[in-house]
Amino acid sequence: MPCVPPAIPTDIKPEVDQIVEAILYLYTESRRLTKELARSVDLTGPQLTVLKMLEGVGDLSLSELSERIRAQNSTVTGIIDRMERESLVVRARSNEDKRVVYIKLTDKGARIARGIAIEPMVVLRDALSTLSMPEMRDLLKILTKIARRVQSIVQREAAGNGNKE
Amino acid sequence: MPCVPPAIPTDIKPEVDQIVEAILYLYTESRRLTKELARSVDLTGPQLTVLKMLEGVGDLSLSELSERIRAQNSTVTGIIDRMERESLVVRARSNEDKRVVYIKLTDKGARIARGIAIEPMVVLRDALSTLSMPEMRDLLKILTKIARRVQSIVQREAAGNGNKE
DNA sequence: CCCTATTATTTCGCACGCGAAACATCTGCC
DNA sequence: GGCAGATGTTTCGCGTGCGAAATAATAGGG
Questions:
Q1: B81 nearest nt, CA–C1'
Q2: CA dist list (Å): A143 to A13, A31, A97, B85, B150
Q3: d(Cα A163, Cα A148) in Å, to the nearest integer?
Q4: Residues of A in Cβ contact (< 8 Å) with B14
Q5: Strand, coil or helix: what is B89?
Q6: For residues B115 and B122, what is the distance between their CA atoms, to the nearest angstrom?
Q7: CA of B16 to nearest chain A CA: how many angstroms apart?
Q8: Its pTM surpasses 0.85
Q9: How far off is chain B from A43, nearest CA to CA, in Å?
């Protein structure tokens, strides 16, 4: 029989399940809606995210972009390929370091970005903004706590995989 | 400047952003980790989810399954194709209604499901279970509130698209 | 200066994930 | 009984999304 370290205590299981369920719902539904809205301006969800990101913070290298939208480089390469095909962005090789590629909005891309009122995860944002300030702070505090805990687990995991001498 | 109907009030924007950021982090990181763990038993993330679901609630039609794992039928068809290829599940046409297909675990599938201690979204579950009971209740209450709000927006959206005559 | 390790990006193969259209079956209504 | 519309599933095409390997360029030690 395999080793089973964590195993969630049964007395809190229902609450945990419900919370997970709620987070899954919020994430998938918001994502779906955003995608649908993006489609009305001929963009995909990730493309909208990239467009808005570049509009907000300016040119980014492909790695910086991947990190910010939480995707692998190989994924972003594909997204940028398709956006370049649509003339929404261009790739510009850096002069200082010829390995890095900067992604820049074209005029067309910038124009479209300006014209779009849709932010990624709109529905979630709208729903959140109906909360009272104390609720919002409570929520943020608890989520931050969970995130820190997840982060520590992730790091431990990563370390475990790395040290395979 | 274009018309921007919803536009989140600027005074709460930073909080909203941080909350969205946190939820995105929790979701993507948990998903990634689960996928990685699933890989150690030669399953993908969705396949693990399906396996555990069938183990927990028994046979399901393809539609029921899609609904429960929050995916389109066409997506689940593909997942089941691959799982059938690996002899983890079988399709069984219903006798009462020959349109519906029941997905059943094979012996092999059931055995593997029993042997796996990994639940979908493990990391998130583990992190959640470190919260105090009041924190958990607060969190659930607020998330439920948000989810209801999202749901009402989604429904309004759906109605708007349906009535197109 | 050169060789090696590192870093940035791309390529490849595969598994989702979706919407639209096709297909099969069922239901109700005549 | 027959047919029109509804329902369950699959097919198709396309866009992510990932990890591993390939490629290109830089940095650092000798």
A1: D10
A2: 18, 19, 39, 40, 19
A3: 23
A4: none
A5: strand
A6: 16
A7: 6
A8: yes
A9: 18
